[in-house]
Design a protein that fits this description.
This protein is α/β, with parallel strands linked by helices and about 475 residues long. The chain folds into three domains: about 20-155, Methylthiotransferase, N-terminal domain (Rossmann fold), CATH 3.40.50.12160; about 175-410, tm_1862 like domain (pyruvate-formate lyase- activating enzyme); about 415-470, Nucleic acid-binding proteins (OB fold (Dihydrolipoamide Acetyltransferase, E2P)). The chain has 16 helices and 23 strands. Bound molecules: S-adenosyl-L-homocysteine (SAH), iron/sulfur cluster (SF4) and FE3-S4 cluster. Catalyzes the methylthiolation of N6-(dimethylallyl)adenosine (i(6)A), leading to the formation of 2-methylthio-N6-(dimethylallyl)adenosine (ms(2)i(6)A) at position 37 in tRNAs that read codons beginning with uridine.
């Protein structure tokens, strides 16, 4: 059975593929852009920036790649199969190129940054390769490609945050939006390609973040998710050094915009999440009681090999702090990697026992995939067989499903505040939304509509969703 909430690697990436859902009609004669995103929320957020930049330069958008003048894929390099998916997708565009050779095909994002000119050599169909910090240059790169040249910009910046660019909301439900607060990552977890594909960590000016959130509220949005690879290390200093803002302070400022605007954030790094952040979460009702706190492993020796810079005891200390400050019902989710280099059966058991300790609400679980050039690829041998990785992964997923069900059952009989996001996937007779803990809640449609907050009595659940009835609008 395919469980949509406990996502396996392939599922996650399939679900993560998004296309522009709304055709934004341009004036006649305007060139048309088609953009597709893979990978994490940062990439989706970046595609909104890319669309904004190209719209400013006279492009209209289309949801049909067959009618596009420029086709862009915003790619992910996190695991090998994420890259294979992009290579397969590129094959779909070969007939288009045959029919309309002037069509420009570009690859953006992390895979573009990782492969650089190799991408142009390996995938003949590609005209543009643009890394995550080069999007302001896209209009020029498109011009070059239209002149028949191959165009590439993979320069990584120390200060680009696209702070002044108003993202064009793609696939928007008009209720929830992502707001990027920082870029890059300085952590160098040994398995991870992100520091190489997204460069050094930098934080965005808080005033531009607050303005973007206010604009979203003014346009009817009710929820923002502050995005970064490691939001807890957000730090910004004004030019004259008179003002410093850390993540807890930024969170507070965003929460103060309006109590009707819900605030979420992702991702928290266990080494950086402070009690100050937890107290700020507790202080404001509109900051959601939910933390995505990737563990990667429950064993200290594996965590050391992964260069996560915390051990099992530290991680448990952070979980205890969450329970102490925010209560046992704070939603917590994990990322786990099964079968990292030299992981023994005992070390794997420690991951399961950490899961038993925390009882996560939700999880993203992956088999280790060696990424060329990363510290782990250089230092360690990828010596766990595919079968063993898969078996361990299945055990982790099965345990997570059990815990998700247990945690969801705790909600039955309670009344939860839910922000409605739209029709349920299965039927327009139902609406779906999320509660404070980020759990999906399905209700009969009644007279309700998306964008409303409703109080819902939870009457049933699966491991993936809660079901309920509105008791107050
Ligand atoms: N910045 C986030 C993670 C971003 S990548 C953090 O530090 O928590 C998302 C997830 O992909 C990671 O948490 C990890 O579980 C997984 N991942 C990253 N590199 C991987 C690899 N080489 N193989 C398998 N999974 C990987
Ligand atoms: Fe990768 Fe680690 Fe940075 Fe997360 S914190 S993006 S896992 S290097
Ligand atoms: Fe993938 Fe890059 Fe995000 S590698 S997970 S798109 S930061």
């Amino acid at each position: 059975m395919r469980n949509l909430e406990i996502l396996k690697e392939e599922d996650k990436e399939v679900l993560d593929v998004a296309r522009i859902s709304v055709d934004q009609e341009g004036k006649q004669g305007k060139k048309k852009l088609y953009i597709e995103s893979y990978g994490c929320q940062m990439n989706f957020s970046d595609s909104e920036i890319v669309t904004s930049i190209l719209q400013e330069n006279g492009f209209a958008t289309t949801s049909q790649y067959e009618e596009a003048d420029v086709i862009l894929l915003n790619t992910c390099a996190i695991r090998d199969n994420a890259e294979q998916k992009v290579r397969n997708r590129l094959k779909n565009f070969i007939p288009i190129k045959k029919k309309k050779p002037e069509t420009v095909v570009g690859v953006l994002g992390c895979m573009a940054e990782r492969l650089k000119t190799k991408f142009l050599e390996e995938e003949k169909i590609v005209d543009i390769v643009a890394g995550p910090d080069s999007y302001r240059d896209l209009p020029n790169l498109v011009d070059e490609a239209e002149d028949g040249q191959k165009a590439i910009n993979v320069f990584l910046s120390r200060d680009e945050t696209y702070a002044d660019i108003s993202p064009v909301r793609l696939n928007s439900n008009g209720v929830t939006a992502f707001v990027s607060i920082m870029r890059g990552c300085d952590n160098m977890c040994s398995f991870c390609v992100v520091p190489f594909t997204r460069g050094r960590e930098r934080s965005r000016d808080p005033y531009s973040i607050l303005k973007e959130c206010q604009d979203l509220l003014d346009n009817g949005y009710k929820e923002v998710t502050l995005l970064g690879q490691n939001v807890d290390s957000y730090k910004w200093t004004s030019e004259d050094a008179s003002e410093k803002v850390n993540f807890a302070q930024l969170l507070e400022r965003v929460a103060l915009i309006n109590p009707e605007l819900r605030v979420r954030f992702s991702t928290s790094h266990p080494k950086d999440i402070t009690d100050e952040v937890l107290y700020t979460m507790g202080k404001y009702e509109n900051i959601c009681n939910y933390i995505h706190l990737p563990a990667q492993s429950g064993n200290s020796a594996v965590l050391k090999r992964m260069n996560r810079t915390y051990d099992r005891e530290w991680y448990i200390n952070r979980i205890d702090a969450i329970h102490r400050i925010l209560g046992y019902d704070c939603g917590i989710s994990q990322d786990m990697i099964a079968g990292f280099c030299s992981e023994t059966e005992e070390e794997h058991q420690d991951t399961l026992s950490l899961m038993e300790y925390v009882k996560y609400d939700y999880g993203y679980m992956f088999a280790y995939s060696e990424r060329p050039g990363t510290p782990a690829a250089k230092k360690y041998v990828d010596d766990i067989s595919a079968e063993v990785k898969q078996r361990r992964l299945s055990e982790i997923i099965a345990l997570q499903m059990k815990h998700s069900l247990e945690r969801n059952e705790m909600a039955v009989g309670q009344v939860h505040k839910v922000l409605l996001e739209g029709f349920s996937k299965r039927s327009e007779d139902f609406l779906h939304g999320r509660n404070d803990q980020n759990k999906m809640v399905i209700i009969p449609r009644g007279n309700h509509k998306k964008g409303e907050y409703v109080q819902v009595l939870i009457t049933g659940c699966t491991s993936a969703t809660l079901k309920g009835e509105v008791v107050a609008g």
